[in-house]
Amino acid sequence: MIEKVLLVKYGEIMLKGLNRPVFEKQLEKNIKRVLEGKFTFKITREHGRIFISIKGNEDDYEKAAKLVSMVFGIVSVAFAYKTDLDKEEALDAVTAAAREEALDGKKTFKAETRRPNKTFYHKSMEFSAKAGEKVLLEVEGLTVDVHNPDFTVFIEVRKHIYIYTRSVRGGGGIPVGSSGKGIVLLSGGIDSPVAAYLMAKRGLKLDAVYFHSHPYTTELAKEKVKDLADKLSIYCGGIKLHVINFTNAQMSIYEKCPHEQLTIIMRRVMMRVAEEIADSIGAKALVTGESLGQVASQTLESLHVTNSAVSKPVFRPLVGMDKYEVIEIARRIETYDISIRPYEDCCTIFVAKHPETKPKLDRILESEKKIDFEGLVQECLLDIEEIVL
User: Residues 267-278: what's their mean pLDDT?
Assistant: First the structure.
């Protein structure tokens, strides 16, 4: 019997050796999460492949493939025909796949067979030749071109035979949740959502923290960050957004500290608050969208002073990127248009006219004595709104 399935390929997981089953189980769990409640489906797994049967029409397969392709750890999702280990049935499926491509205007093709299952009695080259012959006999208008074909009929012989011509590219990386948990400091800007995306791609399960300074930052600014977190949740396997009331802390810093140090001291308080939240949820690292030299608070000296406020590792995946590279990723993951909405966050409203670019830690620590640094951190932790997305 011929049936349609989604054939899921994964790449880097194959290099994990004895730990590979752990990554495969996490990947399967993440696939189930994006499909549950939307489709009736069944997942099976063989060496190096995951297969998904969807109960529905062609449109359901298209929608499911798009969702699955956004799960990190996957390199592609193919629209495949599945048959028994039966030569004639498989060749019928090859013909059906080729006919679909011909109807779409394609003129040339080749057949390419992989045979992990060596019990199948036809060798790879032999079966590819039979598949090509079958297509030439039954599909009008197609010719063979083994060097530069309009499409390739891929044939994989496993416990069953899978035939496909078309696939959706995946995001790569490794499954979210396989590298532990972190906290991303999520502003309303372009950079931090991209940083979150890149760390999720490396398997980090993320919560997000956002610092809101009502009435200096509006509810529209908060909604913007919520929308960014919602968009990221697609890639991050769901996300919890911790909204911090930062107004009192920010005003205290603004009124009592040297203005050229405002941004650095605010960042240090934010990092400490994020670290406390990380401790409460078992997160082992902080993530920021900082890029070396982009603004005054992101010089090497500034990053050193900011880092010294916390003991956890701080991941900065954008540190070596320029703005154009970051924008390109933001557009691709559909956070850019949200980020450029004209609603300022707390970091842009209280920015100093002449910020210090080479701060000294001892001078910053001396200024922080004026504000009861730890007291402000604990005050922020008493007023947190949690939004699950």
Answer: 97
Q: Which of 188, 193, 192 is nearest to 288 (CA)?
A: 192
Identify whether the C-beta of residue 237 lies closer than 8 Å to the C-beta of residue 362. no
Topology given in CATH for the domain delimited by 181-388: Rossmann fold (3.40.50)
Q: Do domains 3-169 and 181-388 have the same CATH topology?
A: no
**Domain ranges within the chain, ordered by starting residue:** 3-169, 181-388
Give the rounded distance of the alpha carbon of 302 from its chain centre. 29
Rounded Cα gap, residues 263 and 364, in angstroms: 11
pLDDT bin (cut points 50, 70, 90) of residue 296 is confident
The second-level CATH assignment, the architecture, of 3-169 is 2-Layer Sandwich (3.30)
Question: Which tens digit of pLDDT belongs to each residue from 344-376?
Answer: 766 665 666 778 889 999 999 999 999 999 999
HEC sequence for the chain: CCEEEEEEEECHHHHCHHHHHHHHHHHHHHHHHHHCCCCEEEEEEECCEEEEEEECCHHHHHHHHHHHHCCCCEEEEEEEEEECCCHHHHHHHHHHHHHHHHHCCCCEEEEEEECCCCCCCCCHHHHHHHHHHHHHHHCCCCEECCCCCCEEEEEEECCCEEEEEEEEECCCCECCCCCCEEEEECCCCCHHHHHHHHHHHECCEEEEEEEECCCCCCHHHHHHHHHHHHHHHHHHCCCEEEEEECHHHHHHHHHHCCHHHHHHHHHHHHHHHHHHHHHHHCCCEEECCCCCCCCHHHCHHHHHHHHCCCCCCEECCCCCCCHHHHHHHHHHCCCHHHHCCCCCCHHHHCCCCCCCCCCCHHHHHHHHCCCCHHHHHHHHHCCEEEEEC
Helix axes 58-69, 20-35, angle to 10 degrees: 130
